[in-house]
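Changelog-linked ticket: zinc ion example.
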Amino acid sequence: MLKKFFQDLFLCFCLVFFLFIAVEAEKLGNFRDDLTLKIFNEKCGIEMMTQLLYQKYPGAQPGNNPAFHELEEFTAEYTSRRKSDSRNLSRISSGELKIIPIVFHIIHQNGEENISDEQVLSALQVLNEDFRDNNPNRANLVVDFQGLEGDAMMQFALPTLDPDGNPTTGIERIYDPNFEYGDDFLMQETYNWPRDMYLNIYIVKHAHSDGYAAYSFYPSAVNSRPELDGVVLSHWACGTTGTALWSHYRVIAHEVGHWANLIHTWGDKYAVNNSKACRTDDLVDDTPNCIGLKGSDPQAGPDGCNTEYESCTSLDMIQNHMDYSFCPIVFTLGQCVRMEACMNFHVSDRDYIWTYENLVDVGLAE
Ligand SMILES: [Zn+2]
């Protein structure tokens, strides 16, 4: 009798335990779903963070900052020159392949934000696939846009030497309880490596306290603030494995696009999904006018992109990396030329980071 009692007790215990596990798993699943929904409209915080930058450093504002006009004038002239170059018609951009040293600073509190090397390397792989027109879903590019895609001829590589000439893997792990959030300028000011030598990527628990998945700045905005030049990613918006969310696998390409002076496909005058954006432009000729985002349904999963959406009387290029959709595949050739111009101009040292001299200094060339 006593034995039966203990057997029943044990069974009850098991039942309660498994119920507890099921409820917790459900909660975790909901949390991840909620996170995906929360960030549906908040993939990138460049606009919010740029306003913050202007408040703190008024000299960074376009009206006070000659770098904006110098870079845009150079880009317009460079683009015009490339348009008259017959090589521009080639799918493969004719620019010289640029190797860009990239360092990942993982700022962590010993939690899941201290992501694995494997996850970091998966982000690097995404970046190199997307900047060389080699996205794994490349065959799914809608017919209307085939032939517009470009190879940015930019390849990102982990350095083997740090700024002091000491060995590095290019993945730096820093325990710091002060920076759970990446929107504290002090975080970048504390941990940046020289931006003329490395593209700084920061991986944090939360890129922004309002929930933005990631952000970076345009090169002109940080021309006089080298310590704030880089990309900040939430750990779940970095790479394709570990803690990464499927909806944000390729965010790094979007943010590095900004780093190389690309604007959202709907322009930078209005927030995403504002019909007024049909009247503004991203300063690139071959990206269709649009208001962004509408063609993507996060609840429909990875196949939820509406590639037939027209927000401004023509087909949206929802598969562009500079949209907010969950199915980015390409940069256009026009965007590649815009980035190429930026990488050939002195603003924010973009014309130095890929030089042979620098590659020697970071251990990527002899
Ligand atoms: Zn963005």
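Closing comment: Example verified and attached. The domain at 42-261+332-361 is CATH 3.40.390.10 (Collagenase (Catalytic Domain)). DSSP finds eight helices and six strands in the chain.
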